[in-house]
Amino acid sequence: METTHPWSEGPSTTRKKVIQELVEGRDFATQLKSILHKPLEITHDHASPSPSPSPHELVSKILRSFTETLSVLTSSCESGEVIHQNLAVSHADSHCDDPRSDDSGESRKRPTPKDRRGCYKRRKTTQTWAKVSHTTDDDHAWRKYGQKEILNAKHPRSYFRCTRKYDQGCRATKQVQRMEEDPQMYQITYIGLHTCKDPLKAPQIIMDTDPWETYIVNNPPDSMWGNGKQADDHDQALSSSTTPTIKQESKEEALSDLTDNLSSLGTDNNNNSYLWTDFKDFELVEPAIMSPKLGSDNGDVVSTLYSCTETASHHGLDFGGHFDGDFNFDDI
DNA sequence: TATATTTGACCCGA
DNA sequence: TCGGGTCAAATATA
């Protein structure tokens, strides 16, 4: 997009490491797929003295591979356009960053019925990352909900939320601040993942020259759930958004649980069912991920994985405890 | 009329 | 206590 990324052109060892990890992970996934294609009893690994690795082992290896990859990427991406990418999600966030859910403003010190301004639960930690861009626009529809003069800052900060906040419970927000040294440029901080599915902005299959650059450009954490891509566009996000907003508070509350789960996916040690549904959807959603092709499809692997997670989450599938939960992205 | 933006008030975390 | 983040009434716009 606007800038390049250190690892897209930089230390080849980093790239090699990332590629190696993903190739390894894909191989494991391929093995897992073949296991899953066998008759059902074989998937019950306790009943099958197969010499090949158990599904459990394979999944652990796959997850380790992705974990390794992510750690390499995050350590490599902290300079450059993506200034900071915090993939750690606090558990507290899962239930407190919906300003209107549960007791926010209701059971707390109740303001006058007319004026509930300021009644919200401030999100504490969530996925955040920042970028510097000459445009505030990206491929999501944002609605401005506030502007604030910031101390020691020449320009005010604008606050945007996803226009799908109310109809789909999407909690993604972003903050836009014009840079002092270069007023043409904006520092844009994205907070939270998009959990919305925007029909106007279908998931993009990543096919680009440099899969890693494509990944970071097109798949920032907000598009992990398969709904997003980043693209330069006309400069309009500061002043408008086009997607209609349905003001229906109860609907958002109803959706909050779903988005909580989505937000904690992959980091919640107790939600292993999501991980399993993810892997089930490897074959349900995109068989091509298993292709042994190498090279430009690495970005596809990553983006497809994220598409799978979204699909799985919406299916609400659950393997129901064939595998006890001792694997996840964090503790492999 | 419906939707988006502006803006002052309010709340929370440091 | 203060700065920053969010809410929601008022206002603007299509």
Q: Note the gap between the termini.
A: 34 Å
Low-confidence residue ranges: 1-11, 39-50, 74-114, 199-332
Number of helices: 10
Q: In percent, how much strand structure appears in the residues?
A: 5-15%
Main location: nucleus
Pfam family, one: WRKY
GO molecular function: DNA-binding transcription factor activity; sequence-specific DNA binding
InterPro entries: WRKY_dom, WRKY_dom_sf, WRKY_plant
What does this structure look like?
With 332 residues, this protein is an alpha+beta fold. It contains ten helices and six strands, in the order ααααβαβββαββαααα. The protein is elongated and about 60 Å long. The N terminus and C terminus are likely disordered. It binds a DNA duplex (14 and 14 nucleotides) through strand 3 and strand 4.
